[in-house]
Amino acid sequence: xxxxxxxxxxxxxxxxxxxxxxxxxxxxxxxxxxxxxxxxxxxxxxxxxxxxxxxxxxxxxxxxxxxxxxxxxxxxxxxxxxxxxxxxxxxxxxxxxxxxxxxxxxxxxxxxxxxxxxxxxxxxxxxxxxxxxxxxxxxxxxxxxxxxxxxxxxxxxxxxxxxxxxxxxxxxxxxxxxxxxxxxxxxxxxxxxxxxxxxxxxxxxxxxxxxxxxxxxxxxxxxxxxxxxxxxxxxxxxxxxxxxxxxxxxxxxxxxxxxxxxxxxxxxxxxxxxxxxxxxxxxxxxxxxxxxxxxxxxxxxxxxxxxxxxxxxxxxxxxxxxxxxxxxxxxxxxxxxxxxxxxxxxxxxxxxxxxxxxxxxxxxxxxxxxxxxxxxxxxxxxxxxxxxxxxxxxxx
Length: 396
Hints:
It is found in: Cell envelope. This is Membrane fusion protein, multidrug efflux system. Residues 78-217 form the Multidrug resistance protein MdtA-like barrel-sandwich hybrid domain. It holds the Pfam family BSH_RND. The protein is α+β, with helices and mostly antiparallel strands. The protein folds into 4 domains: 49-62 and 310-395, conserved putative lor/sdh protein from methanococcus maripaludis s2 fold, CATH 2.40.420; 67-73 and 219-307, Efflux pump adaptor protein, beta barrel domain (Elongation Factor Tu (Ef-tu), domain 3), CATH 2.40.30.170; 83-109 and 186-210, CATH 2.40.50.100; 110-184, Helix Hairpins, CATH 1.10.287. Helix content is 33%, strand content 35%. The chain is built from 5 helices and 20 strands. The chain has helices at 2-46, 111-146, 152-184, 230-241, 385-388, and strands at 48-56, 60-81, 86-91, 98-99, 104-108, 187-189, 194-196, 206-207, 212-229, 253-256, 267-271, 281-289, 300-316, 320-323, 326-332, 338-343, 347-349, 352-355, 363-365, 377-383. Strands 2, 4, 7, 9, 10, 11, 12, 13, 17 and 18 form a 10-stranded antiparallel beta sheet that branches. Mean pLDDT is 83; it is low at 1-8 and 33-46.
């Protein structure tokens, strides 16, 4: 009997311990649940960033200046080369000097060519004398034939001799002209108004036919040649065929090698006939006035053309970040949650990127992209168009 009571007492004690253990575990679970809920609530509160500058995108139409590397050449550029052999006797002008058409630049030794002219004159005089003698002889024989003193065959022979003498005159005149021409080549004159380049052959130097003596450049106007791609050429030609506003009717801007804009504008005149095989490009030519002769032949620069782009979006550079070769912005959804968005800039426009693929009303993080990350929530502080694009006018 006592053993039975002892068992019941032990069983009751075990039940009490089990109830207390379950109550303790339930209390721990509730405390953990409350702690986790409180932690999640705090974490959610921490992910909401206040007053983050946000820009609402609007489509724009801009006149975008596009530049092309160009090669500049004088409208007239001529290499002056020797046509005869001789020594440089005298140089009459200085390098870099402006000369007029027909002005003497330098003189080659001419003694030998003077002698050739004298010899040709002598031969011409001899040929003329022989022709005169043949003419007198023919007239004398003509009288004798008429009087039947000699046969007509002798008169025919005299006429042949006269013809040979007259052809001798023609040959002698040709030799004289050739000698005079060679003599004239010893005096080098300017073919047109222009600026003299360097003289590689100095006084006393021997020159042979084909040697470069100097260059003459007329830089009152200059040509600027620049190359465009086949796609750009096709757009230009389609616009021309459709009668739209053409680049050829616009003023073309030249940017010099020091970055300064040339004060005179140019006009697009013509293009090459064929595409360059290696690059697939074709060259256009622009004429620029150069009254101050600031630009020299062989100079370099950039052609700037106005290119209108419609329905594009200007993304401020400070609103973007790059990872490898891709550009990204943070965009807000309707719940103001941040999402990462990649885009491909068409080209750069000052401190902005020109992009497509966005929609009117898209909102991007304007500033403070270092504070945000994908998935967090923000309370946006909207930035006006005027504030976002206040520097845009400096790039127009």
